[in-house]
Design brief:
This protein is mainly beta and 91 residues long. It has one domain (11-90): Thrombin, subunit H (Beta Barrel). The protein is 14% helix and 40% strand. It is built from 1 helix and 6 strands, in the order βββββαβ. It has a 6-stranded antiparallel β-barrel with strand order 1-2-5-4-3-6. Strand 4 and strand 5 (59-64) form a beta hairpin. The protein is globular, with a radius of gyration of 12 Å. 23% of the residues are buried.
Length: 91
């Protein structure tokens, strides 16, 4: 399942330190703030939604609304390794 958005992405990000509950994003876009909500798509998985918990320079702590499966974690690692990231959309 591929989720398509009708508007452009707010930011591009590469995920690091991925767990079932969240991850750290390295973002290219300045202006990401604590409390901001984003979603992103992973092919073959439901859209992931969550909240920015902290921001330090280009690093963002991101908590998922719902834990993601091990398969989704692996897909996220693969996407961020091969494709260089995910597109974040304001939720």
């Amino acid at each position: 399942m591929v989720t398509r958005h009708q508007h452009s992405a707010y930011a591009s990000a590469v995920a690091r330190h991925i767990s079932a509950e969240g991850c750290q994003f390295v973002v290219e876009q300045v202006g990401v703030v604590q409390g901001q909500r984003f979603s992103f798509a992973l092919d073959g998985h439901p859209a992931v939604r969550g909240t920015v918990r902290w921001v330090v320079k280009d690093r963002v702590g991101f908590a998922f609304d719902q834990p993601i499966s091990r398969d989704a974690q692996a897909a996220m690692r693969e996407r961020c390794h091969v494709v260089q990231g995910v597109e974040l959309y304001l939720s």
